[in-house]
Amino acid sequence: MIKFRGIAEYVMSSPLPAALKENIPHIIDKLNSDILRKGAKNPQDAAKIVAYKIKDNILEFTIESGAVVRLHHATLRIKNFLAPLLGKDYRIGIRTIKIRNPEILIDQKLRFSTSLPLIREIIVTDNSTIIKLNDLDESIIKRPIIDRLLKLIETKEKKAKWGGKVEHWRLIKRSKEKEPKFFEDPNEIIEKIGWIKRFAPGQWLYTPPITHLIRRFEQLFINIVLKPLGFVEVIFPKIVPLRIGVKTGHLKGTPHQMMFASQPLSYNIEDFDEWIDLVSVTEEAPPEELKRFLKDPSYFLCFAQCEPFYWFFEGEIIDREKLPMRWYDKSGPSFRWESGGLRGLERLVEFHRIEITWIGEPDQVIEIRNQLLERYEYFMDKVLDLEWRWAWVTPFYLVHAGEIEEEEAEIDINRPGTIDFEAWLPYKGPKEDHHTWLEIGNISIHGAKYAEPFRIKHQLRDKIIWTGCSGFGVERWFIAFLAQKGFDPDNWPKIVRERITRPPLSVQLVTYPHTKEGKEILDEIEKLLDKLPVE
Ligand code: SER
Ligand code: ZN
């Protein structure tokens, strides 16, 4: 629970006359019983003047308040109530207002950065936190910064209650059981046969045959799922200015998973003389030295891939007949720092995704999501013949913004939220074990989660804009297919076998693939691929 305490100070244009001084207790009664109660169902949530003082032309109210009519709201309400009254009856104006010694009292132990703006001191005991703020003048009282601070407190309270992270997962649909054709780990095989080579942790170079297969896979998805629904291709930028990550919420929710980029310190090569000397002589590039030649990071590398979509419509008013709009982007990679959790093509730092985005009126956004779901199901079930399941999960946009949603008793998939698509990986073990399933994509209705901060407006004032997005994780869909079907096209479903053509020959060098075993498996796979139609 949150409470506030502080002294609201009103500086008048002249000293308070005796008649007004006498009237102050009545004014306080009116304020406490009416003005400062409005909007709070529970009196605990309202504000109350508990003491007052008059010094020449200064009127001071000591206010205690709850979480609804907050100290700073109460201060403004009092001003709005007093101003006409004092003007009319006493010809006095209110010059300035200020809150002295404002405090936020929380009945649990929370940790805060002491470098937050406005904060003077934080006193933490086992079961309470007192945040003492700097004195607030009118311009700060009117800005939403205090409300944002309170939102941060609420988020921290929820996290403390739910242990930092709540992940909901509820099965909503699953495929029939399908006979797996393969039980080995395709990640290991494609590395052994040299189709991929590790470039850096979580990054791979994809050689011609696997690139060919992945591209055909993407094309199959585009032709079967996206084109029939009228989605058109766009190219989104892949490094994102920080400002946009503030609006999407990523910079407060997932800074620990994001990669950042900096501009060089200057455009003059002479400014790099020292650096050039260092690299020339040592043949090394020490990052701590490089840092001196860079500006502070001002971008993050593409993370959700749909960030530029919301930015495009920022501040725009959209004609009713132009809605809905359906776009997809597959123009470049996304980056997610996974620390130690990397694995083959399943968990990557640099990965590829077809990001599908749409915007419209709420009904249109829901309808498009439903049409996509239908096509996704057809693609998973009939085209790739996968064993799959769908789950209603914590919305990705809340996870990415570091927000927490409490579990609801009933789920209604036609409201904002996220559905994860998962595929079973037989090599990992029995399907009853939760860990043997891989999330290969997701689909979301965001509601106004992005339309609001980006101020995207409908032409008609009474209508609102919603957005939706879906990520098709290219590597993950491909690895899930190989994990269930293997490398022999005889075990692939008909459409895949017909539409995916013979890849170019694999790279074979004196020293590559690196092992004898790898070379032998590669020879077998090359023969199997001969079964595919030639392009
Ligand atoms: N943008 C969504 C996500 O990051 C879908 O790709 O999960
Ligand atoms: Zn997205």
Record the SSE blueprint.
Layout: E1 2-12, H1 18-35, E2 47-55, E3 58-65, H2 71-90, E4 94-106, E5 119-125, E6 128-133, E7 136-137, H3 138-142, H4 145-162, E8 169-174, H5 186-192, E9 196-200, E10 203-206, H6 208-226, E11 232-234, E12 239-241, H7 242-248, H8 250-253, E13 260-264, H9 273-282, H10 287-290, E14 294-301, H11 307-312, E15 317-318, E16 325-329, E17 334-335, E18 350-351, E19 353-360, H12 362-383, E20 388-393, H13 396-400, E21 417-424, E22 437-447, E23 457-458, E24 466-473, H14 474-485, H15 494-499, H16 516-529
Parallel strand pairs: 11-16, 15-23
Antiparallel strand pairs: 1-3, 1-4, 2-3, 4-6, 4-7, 5-6, 8-20, 9-10, 12-14, 13-14, 16-19, 17-18, 19-24, 20-21, 21-22, 22-24
The structure holds serine (SER) and zinc ion.
Structural class: alpha+beta
Fourth-tier CATH superfamily name of the largest domain: Bira Bifunctional Protein, Domain 2
Q: What is the overall shape?
A: elongated
Domains counted in the coordinates: how many? 2
Mean pLDDT metric: 95
Termini separation: 67 Å
Bound molecules: serine, zinc ion
Write down the CATH topology of the largest domain: BirA Bifunctional Protein, domain 2
Sequence stretches where pLDDT stays below 50 over 5 or more residues? none
At the first level of CATH, the class of the largest domain is: Alpha Beta
**Helix content range:** 25-40%
User: Strands of the largest sheet, in order across it?
Assistant: 8-20-21-22-24-19-16-11
DSSP, total strands? 24
